[in-house]
Amino acid sequence: RVDNMNNKKRFAILKNVLDFHKAMEWLRHDAADDHFQDPIRYCDLVQHAERYLERKERKKLRPRSLADLKSRLNVFGRTFGTRLVKDIQADEVEAWLFADPSHSNQTRRNYRTVLGGFFEFARLKKYVVESLIPAVTNPVVDEAEPKILNVAQASALLHTAWAKQELELLP
User: What is the CA radius of gyration of the chain?
Assistant: First the structure.
């Protein structure tokens, strides 16, 4: 009976040792074959922008909205394009957002809105753990009183809207 009990203990110990060795071998094999991955996927900004824009095209955004997204992401990409999405920091984005003194706060806010969707999509695709845009200052836009156009201004506006139909200003 004592021998039987000792054999059970020996068997349990041996089984644990074998399980440990199997687990270690599996980890070694996985790491060697690059199957073991970081929970964050690697993607540079240009690749991510292409995927993001493809998704927006599938959603059938208006051409003007797509053009605005592409334009804003291209401008952002000139600074950060070769970097991995996961390596871009909120303070860098904020410095970039406020760097051009010719931009109005409304323009900055529009860029921040586009980047908010962009980095949220990165979070969903696991390129980043969380979106960094909430940590970026949201520019304050002064509310302006609406103004009434005179006849000449209204006429010029309508003529321009008619001449540039790609702007989609008319119904």
Answer: 28
The pair of three-digit structure tokens given for residue 150, joined into one six-digit string: 């005179």
Is 106 in contact with 141 (CB distance < 8 Å)? yes
Angle at 42 between CA 28 and CA 127, to 5 degrees: 120
84: β partners: 44
Confidence of residue 36 (pLDDT cuts 50, 70, 90): very low
Span 79-132, pLDDT tens digits: 988 888 889 999 999 999 999 999 999 999 999 999 999 999 999 988 888 899
Please give the torsion angle defined by the CA atoms of residues 169, 167, 60 and 105, in that order, rounded to the nearest 10 degrees.
Answer: -90
**Whole-number percent of the chain with pLDDT over 90:** 45
Q: Residue 62 to residues 56, 65, 165: CA-CA distances in angstroms? A: 10, 5, 13
